[in-house]
Amino acid sequence: MITDVDKGFLNMALDEAKLALQDNTYPVGAVLVDEEFNVIATGRNRVHPNKDVSAHAEIEAIRNAGEVVFDAKIHNKKFTLYSSLEPCPMCTGGILFAKIQRVVWLLNDDKGFGGFLKMKDAAIFEEKFNRIEVIAEPDEELKMKQIELMDQWEKNANHVGNLRKVVLADI
């Protein structure tokens, strides 16, 4: 179950996803919040603008939090990561290493690189996953907004399917 506070942070993640799409990259946004509901950091996908395959929203939020995440990890403080899309395997690894204890996302990504649920179900790092509260797809209205962004992304020239079409046309 999510609260109105959760919904507000999910809207912030969605706003970051919109900015990512405006930057012609995969529309994913993330917000990292401490246990007092202070925004610690935000992030959005920047793969195409930065020409960096690791520039994912969740990783950017964790990086932007810097020393605060490191300190929270040592002192076992509870952080929540809100994302507009299910974290991929790389971002899931970042979540595990940062000891983020709660993750909430708008849309499962079983068609793409969503890896959080798959990795959790594989029972690897079971002890670490068992410490994380997961809330997937808690709000239908916001989920539909993320789906709209994903649909827009499929038409974008930087979408990998469209980039491959250009390469094949040149052959």
Please give a structural write-up.
By secondary structure, the protein is α/β, with parallel strands linked by helices. The chain has nine helices and five strands; from the N terminus they run H-E-E-H-H-H-E-H-E-H-H-E-H-H. Strands 2-1-3-4-5 form a five-stranded mixed sheet. It comes from Sporosarcina thermotolerans.
Give the SSE layout.
Layout: H1 4-22, E1 29-33, E2 39-44, H2 47-50, H3 57-65, H4 67-75, E3 80-83, H5 89-98, E4 102-105, H6 116-121, H7 126-130, E5 133-136, H8 140-154, H9 160-170
Parallel strand pairs: 3-4, 4-5
Antiparallel strand pairs: 1-2, 1-3
Helix pairs in contact: 1-8, 3-5
Summarize the entry for a quick read.
By secondary structure, the protein is of the alpha/beta class.
Properties at a glance:
171 residues, alpha/beta, 5-stranded mixed beta sheet, 9 helices, globular
Number of helices: 9
Got a strand count?
5
Low-confidence stretches: none
Helix coverage percent: 40-55%
Task: Tell me the radius of gyration.
Answer: 16 Å
